[in-house]
Hints:
The chain is α/β, with parallel strands linked by helices and 260 residues long. The chain has one domain (1-182, 203-260): 2-enoyl-CoA Hydratase, Chain A, domain 1. The chain has helices at residues 30-45, 79-90, 92-95, 110-117, 145-153, 155-164, 170-175, 185-201, 204-237, 240-251; strands at 6-11, 14-19, 51-56, 100-104, 107-109, 121-125, 129-131, 168-169, 181-183. A 6-stranded mixed sheet has the order 1-2-3-4-6-9, with helices on both faces. The protein has a 3-stranded mixed sheet with strand order 5-7-8. Helix 1 links the parallel strand 2 (14-19) and strand 3 (51-56). Helix 2 (79-90) runs antiparallel to helix 9 and helix 4 (110-117) packs across helix 5 (145-153). The longest helix has 34 residues, at 204-237. The model has no long low-confidence stretch (mean pLDDT 95).
Amino acid sequence: MSSDTITLEFDGPVAIMTNNRPEKHNAANDEMDTRLWEVLGELHERDGVRAVVWRGNGKSFSSGRDTTELGVRTEDISDFDFIERGHRGTQQFFSLPCPIIAALKGWVIGGSFERALLCDLRVAGESARMRLPEVLHGVVPDTGGTARLFQMAGHGLVADLALTGRILDAEEALRHGIVSRVVPDAELDEKVLEMAHQIAKAPAFTVKMFRRTLGRMGNPMVKQSIEEEAISQSMVFGSYDYAEMKAARTEQREPKFRNR
């Protein structure tokens, strides 16, 4: 499958992946997810790529899942198999043969925020606003990002963001080490591309060995979290409370949860 929902360009040894649904603040749908896995797969096989930039067209990096497509599935597949298939795509972030830098601006929400957390570096424009609103929608974060966030900022911040769904701005994200730099939006793409080219000039094998060391420290916990999240999310999708939340929203009434 191929589409223009994520474009792929090259600036010498630097690959540039661009989320390309600007009219939707780059909200992710199934087509966009499939294209992301396709692009990451291509980068695994392409020789000479020394760094990757991941950015978004328009005002936002990505506003998370396209809510107009929530719960819409056109194929006969179990919840667990559907989630695990997505996780197989997600795990390409761990095996990518070169560093990836996420350029964050505007909305950076939900699963898109989590995927950005799996990148090697994150640079924020001043407009960046990050959220984990899944619990407010009756589901759990399930893309491994909360484990990475736990490693960066600790239990308290993860619980705060996930349980309240509050917005984390760029400056607070910098204080917690979630992003390494904050720059004016107008300078974001130029700065991230400059960083990517700086990395690309370093000895390739040395970069590879450093990323291997860093990954061996951090990735096992994130991978274990992804496995747990697949089970938890499958159980949530089949729960009474999730069905009740959806029904209550459709009927415009308060839900009556039964903790099951």
